[in-house]
């Protein structure tokens, strides 16, 4: 039967949109797939609850064959992204599909047509909905389970997108595996630079004060928007959005894994880091992402039983990246690993073009665990690809400058 593409228009359609991924993955055949919480998915797609919709427009699309849903996708425009980056990008995300090239092509074509109608010169993705959310398509590292807020995808998804016509790699991002209790794997330069941060620059570091979470969130936002602004695909978070994220993450936030660097004389926050205990280790115990009838008991019982973290964000304001604050924040992670159940984990996303951070990961003794890819299809003949000319990371580095920089995870 011919594939039909139609928009999500009511609660029944939305339920079909959400349910599809739970049907497409067989936990026995794909044991590394972790079912996300349905409640969190609904909240993210809720136009009334997700503040992202205050500056964005989205269309959720279903692919049907003979009345049966076989695929889904979102097409969206983020006006804040376009204004900040000075581009006319349209985006796609939430892509899930049976191994059906006709359906996948129809979905991607529909997303592109929707973006073109809104003046976009290209469509980029997958982003669900931004690079601040779960994003990118897994293209390497299928043999290991995904860490919190990252995805595991069918290997055939890559072929579905690349065979749809017109799509090329726009950017890859890396997840690095780190064993934080193994200090011997770390280049000694890390510790030398970290030792000088306070004595030479007057900068002190500390952990988040969870009882003062609102103020800490504000400090983190200040660093986040300054340190990340030059990243490919980055869009700043406004205060409403960051507090929305903070509310969602508060149940798993561990102040031992949240850090701030500041100048006590001026009161300026110069750097911050946020690592999250791997909630996926708990979600993997739930059936199909449901909290009812007994899933919430499993979540409560095991939410502190994780042995790894994800370094979700580690950044230093550009004007302070020469001070070695990044190295000091790395050192604090190793100190926390000695006191907490989590002895390591993964660090990322890190853009493959982010030379400083990839150098730092090498010096920390890290290895690339997984690779995610963003694709791009140009919608206008005169549009220029966004892919950097030299964006691939290769080799090892041992230089002081990259360790001091800290940069952005």
TrEMBL record:
Region span, Disordered: 383-409
Top class in the EC scheme: transferase
Entry EC number(s): 2.3.1.-
Domain N-acetyltransferase: 3-161, 240-384
InterPro entries xrefs: Acyl_CoA_acyltransferase, BcerS-like, GNAT_dom
Organism: Patulibacter brassicae
SUPFAM superfamilies: Acyl-CoA N-acyltransferases (Nat)
Protein name: GNAT family N-acetyltransferase
Superkingdom: Bacteria
Alphabetical UniProt keywords: Acyltransferase, Transferase
Example of a GO MF term: acyltransferase activity
Keyword Transferase among UniProt keywords: yes
